[in-house]
Design a protein that fits this description.
2 helices, about 25% strand, elongated, two-stranded antiparallel sheet, five-stranded antiparallel sheet, about 120 residues, alpha+beta, single chain, binds zinc ion
Length: about 120
């Protein structure tokens, strides 16, 4: 193959057929960028998870009982994102709770979730 292009700068590469970059500088630039973008995704997910946790924590704190029923629209209004949770736990009664750290929830019906706090570790 004669005209392979550098993955970083796009200039044509000469030499070994398995070369992906025209220079060491381009190789390290490319990898640095990859690292930064994966760090960004980690940070984004961390932020969402902590935001979710904070919302559940606030809702939990507003209740008196150890187990609470929360209006779905209340946490959505606060910016809760259901896509992000840390783990899922199945309770002895068979219902599954999605956790954001120590706060777990299960959907009760269309409008409500059941909120619990648990320290598994
Ligand atoms: Zn290059």
């Amino acid at each position: 193959m004669d005209n392979k292009e550098c993955k970083e700068c796009g200039s044509s590469i000469r030499g070994r057929i398995d070369k992906k970059y025209c220079s060491d500088a381009c190789r390290s630039n490319f990898h640095n960028k990859m690292n930064i973008s994966s760090l960004k995704s980690i940070r984004y997910i961390d932020t969402q998870l902590k935001k979710n946790r904070k919302i559940l924590m606030d809702c939990f704190a507003e209740q008196d009982s150890v187990q609470s029923q929360i209006e779905l629209r209340k946490i959505l209004k606060k910016g809760f994102v259901f896509d992000f949770h840390t783990h899922i736990e199945k309770m002895p009664n068979g219902s599954e709770y999605q956790f954001c750290y120590e706060f777990g929830y299960a959907q009760l019906n269309e409008h409500q979730i059941h909120l619990i706090k648990q320290h598994p570790y």
